[in-house]
Design brief:
With about 200 residues, the protein is mainly alpha-helical. It has one domain. The chain has ten helices and no strands. Helix 9 packs antiparallel against helix 10. The longest helix is centred in the middle third of the chain and has 30 residues.
Length: about 200
């Protein structure tokens, strides 16, 4: 199969899986493995997520613009940005320290990806059946502790096959957020996390 055709197929898989809680990177790595597609340092599988970043920016442009322009004078906007940075911090630390292991070992081990996909799916199904009474309904009003802990959950997605959105939403639900606000915060958190991953790989 030509690299062009493989890139188109992988792009379709990325688009179909990025915004649901199934690891888009895990699916691309597995599919690339079976198609015999190899990118230098697995950079293609990371940089392709730039498309998802642009999609998030387009959907949340109004709110992002409000945050960008209001944070110096609006305490609520400033608080949300601080919470976002707090949630982002664990991924920066783990990603920087474990970058070589993640790319050279985990990304090259299809068995790890398969196990992570299955275990993640079982956990999400179990969470969906739990009797949950949410305490936090607005992503901009989470306690700082909740922001940070969601950031720790996001670090699980350093394992290919673990969905980043699935990990953050599951973490939010366990911390008593409601599903809607957890999903919304997961998308906001994707911007610095995926942006940093793409920039670092480039």
């Amino acid at each position: 199969m030509s690299d062009w055709l493989a890139a188109i197929i992988l792009g379709l898989v990325e688009g179909l899986t990025e915004f649901i809680p199934v690891s888009s990177t895990g699916h691309m790595l597995l599919l690339g493995h079976f198609m015999g597609f190899e990118s230098a340092g697995k950079t293609f599988e990371i940089v392709i997520q730039l498309g998802a970043l642009l999609a998030i920016v387009s959907v949340y442009f109004k709110r992002l613009w409000t945050l960008a322009t209001r944070w110096p004078v609006d305490p609520e906007a400033r608080r949300f940005l601080i919470g976002l940075l707090l949630a982002f911090a664990p991924a920066v630390a783990v990603g920087f320290l474990a970058y070589g292991f993640i790319k050279d070992v985990l990304f090259e081990t299809p068995q790890v990806i398969c196990v992570a996909l299955i275990v993640g799916g079982v956990i999400l199904l179990a969470l969906d059946r739990m009797d949950k009474r949410p305490q936090w309904l607005d992503a901009s009003q989470y306690p700082m502790r909740v922001y940070f802990l969601i950031g720790l959950f996001q670090c699980l997605a350093m394992i290919p096959g673990v969905s980043r959105s699935g990990a953050t939403i599951a973490g939010g639900l366990l911390l008593k957020t409601d599903k809607r606000s957890a999903a919304e915060f997961s998308f906001f958190l994707a911007l610095p996390t995926m942006g940093a991953a793409v920039a670092y790989d480039l």
